Amino acid sequence: MKILICGGGDVGESIARYLSTENISVSIIDTSPELVQRLNDTLDVTAFAGHAAHPATLELAGAAAADLLVAATSSDEVNLVACHIARHLFKTPVCIARVNDPSYLGDGKQGLFNEGGFAVDDVIFPAREIAQAFLLRLKAPGAQLMIPLSGDRIRLYGVLCAADCPLVGTPLRQLAELFPDIKASIGAIRRGEHIIIPSGEDMLMEGDEAYFAVASEHAARAMATLGHQEILHQRFIILGGGDTGFLLAGMIHKDFPGARVTLIESSRTRAEFLAQRLPFATIIHGDGLEPTILMEAAIDAGGTFIATTPDDENNVLASLLAKRMGAERAIPLIEKTNYNPLVTNSGIDAVVNPRTIISSKILQFIRTGSIRAVHALTSGSAEVFEGEVQAASPLAQNPIRDLHLSGNVRVAAFLRQGNVILARPNTEGEEGDIAIVFAARKHAKTAQKLFGIEREDAP
To answer: What is the C-alpha separation between 51 and 77, in angstroms, rounded?
Structure first.
């Protein structure tokens, strides 16, 4: 597979770094010769200096041979034009554009991306994706991560195992006997900097992050079993009134009826805009790192603090300060993965990482066959596949024990005619089932092959 990335900045480089470790040919276009040189020196990619919306540059970078183009420069206009040229001049089959300006999206703008508009197969609006990721975490108190799967019939959770977690030290094979009425399967464990795709003999340890698939109606009981009670809050304080904070405030207002929303914004002009557009929210103009501002936001009354500014350091420090002053939960936006060890034991409850979110979006176009969705975990060291079992799929022909899967791939569950079936060694999938499979990233292709191939012309 060949992928062309336009823009070697944070988003483009993150995608390239993620993909270049696999058997994927990755090319990058960027206007900075210095950045191009660094990318060529540090990653297994081919980087070119040039303008991504110029036909000559796209041709030089191999747009005609690319299976997928990801336009992720800092310019929305360049991204849209690059996709359009790649499709119409070079017949690139799949084109994805990052768009930061919400004026390109929303009501009345759909025609921009319909037939006759820009040749874009999917638009990634980072602020919306990040706001939705925050919202999902707000709906799952106690969880580091929550993603609905299969129309929310199954949920993917990530939780931290504290010292008082009832399952610490218990072999996973015993969980079905201890909790027969809970349809949940632990598919991945992050221990320090290592990812484990567990067998039945593995057990959880204090400090682990456990990722599990669970029937949605059993989610609260599964969380309680892991030592986390789900108590939904009705007070939310958002630091940062940019696009992410603005969208999140609206989402909270819609999905948490009666909730109190306070938004702290350092720009007076932006704060005035927010006050006009968000009449249901309390807008405070000030610095979220100032204790007096947090007290004005009534942080001492509890609730959830959410830091959405573009500055990792400010988000972390403000979250720690908020917790110290009385916030019950604190969830910062953190882009740099080197903050993970610091955050894990700091009292911060969960983190939203935009690179992981964007990578998950891109993976849906790379993991082909009958894969419906792919979700990157733990900064991309593991993936969760959601896909339909085909007639020729190994999952439909053999009990799981006969698949001889390595310790790096685990089938967690099947959704069959609306019913969740936990995967046991003697379980067989059936054609039409939706299967949930965990895999270490280096073994993603092994997991993908379990589903069978839906179409031969997939990129």
So the answer is: 12
Query: Are 235 and 216 in contact, with CB atoms under 8 Å apart?
Result: no
Q: For residue 244, what is the enclosing H or E element? A: helix 243-255
- 2-124 against 357-449: fold identical: no
For the domain made up of 235-352, give the CATH fold.
Rossmann fold (3.40.50)
Q: Which residues of 2-40 are buried (b: 16+ CB within 10 A; e: fewer)?
A: bbbbbbbeebbbbbbbbbbeeebbbbbbbbeeebbeebe
CATH topology for 357-449 is Alpha-Beta Plaits (3.30.70)
H or E element, residue 113? none
Residue 332: φ, ψ to 5°? -95, 155
**What is the side-by-side strand order in the sheet with 145-149?**
145-149, 154-160, 209-215, 184-191, 194-196
For 182, the 3-state DSSP assignment is: coil
Determine contact, residues 359/14, Cβ cutoff 8 Å: yes
CA–CA distances in Å: residue 295 to residues 217, 239, 298, 326, 331: 38, 13, 5, 10, 18
Write out pLDDT tens, residues 293-335.
999 999 988 899 999 999 999 999 999 999 999 999 999 999 8
Give the chain's count of helices (H) and strands (E): 14, 21
Phi, psi at 175, each rounded to 5°: -65, -35
SS (H, E, C) 152-170: CCEEEEEEECCCCCCCECC
Q: Is the pTM of this model over 0.90?
A: no
Residues with Cβ within 8 Å of residue 114, at least 6 apart in sequence = none
Look at domain 2-124 and name its CATH class: alpha beta
Q: Is the pLDDT of residue 160 over 60?
A: yes
Strands (E), 176-281: 184-191, 194-196, 209-215, 235-239, 260-265
Query: Cα–Cα distance between 246 and 278 in angstroms, integer?
Result: 8
